[in-house]
Amino acid sequence: MDGANIVVLGTDNVGKSESLYSHTVVVDGREQSLNLWDAPYSQDLSPESFMCEKRVQWADGFVLVYSICDRASFNTVTRLIQTIKSSKDYLGFEKIPIVIVGNKRDLHHRRTVLSEEGRLLALSSDCQFYEVSAAENYHSVLMVFHGLVDRIRESRMSVKKLAGIKGIVKSMSAVFARRRTDSL
Ligand SMILES: Nc1nc2c(ncn2[C@@H]2O[C@H](COP(=O)(O)OP(=O)(O)OP(=O)(O)O)[C@@H](O)[C@H]2O)c(=O)[nH]1
Ligand SMILES: [Mg+2]
């Protein structure tokens, strides 16, 4: 795999920027450079906006961040998943490279979104899920990026595999088509 474009989305103040300190990951002994796109949340970036759509098209993978103390930020992640699924052409067989991140795990006394809710959202939308504390635990954030890179790789491999099968089918049909014309 040669790098990847990753977009980090979520409402304001959930810890998107805080999550970005690690942006090289080592996969199969090789350092992968990740192009990360993060910007302050604004109305322009709401899930239904044109700017959001543009970012979705650019990205190979998605980190969707909410704060476990902010219910609205969790609801936005649900909407972002819908936007991503409806604007990218996923073929159905590949794993969609989305990681849902519940941040600020250290603030458990102010928690309003249960871990189970995050896990359930991930399960029902076929995404990965982590709860982290970006400000405190660098390793948990690293895991997020590793998980995402794995998924991007898997989805690229299944696309390649399908292209390979299509190629074989095409050349086989060419052979048969030739036979048919030969026998005329
Ligand atoms: N307690 C705690 N605070 C955090 C954590 N992650 C981020 N923060 C704090 O939350 C605030 C917002 O973090 P940012 O990373 O700037 O949030 P953002 O999502 O990039 O926000 P915008 O750029 O405004 O959209 C900062 O004060 C961070 O220090 C965390 O895991 N725990
Ligand atoms: Mg930011």
UniProtKB/TrEMBL annotation:
Q: Does the keyword Calcium apply?
A: no
Per its record, what are the GO molecular function terms? G protein activity; GTP binding
Transmembrane intervals:
none
Look at the named UniProt entry and state the broad enzyme category this protein falls under. Answer: hydrolase
Give the Enzyme Commission number: 3.6.5.2
> What Pfam families does the database record attribute to this sequence?
Ras
UniProt keyword Hydrolase present: yes
Q: Which UniProt keywords apply?
A: GTP-binding, Hydrolase, Nucleotide-binding
The protein's annotated catalytic reaction(s) are: GTP + H2O = GDP + phosphate + H(+)
Protein family according to the UniProt entry: Belongs to the small GTPase superfamily. Ras family.
| Protein known as | small monomeric GTPase
User: What species does this protein belong to?
Assistant: Triplophysa tibetana
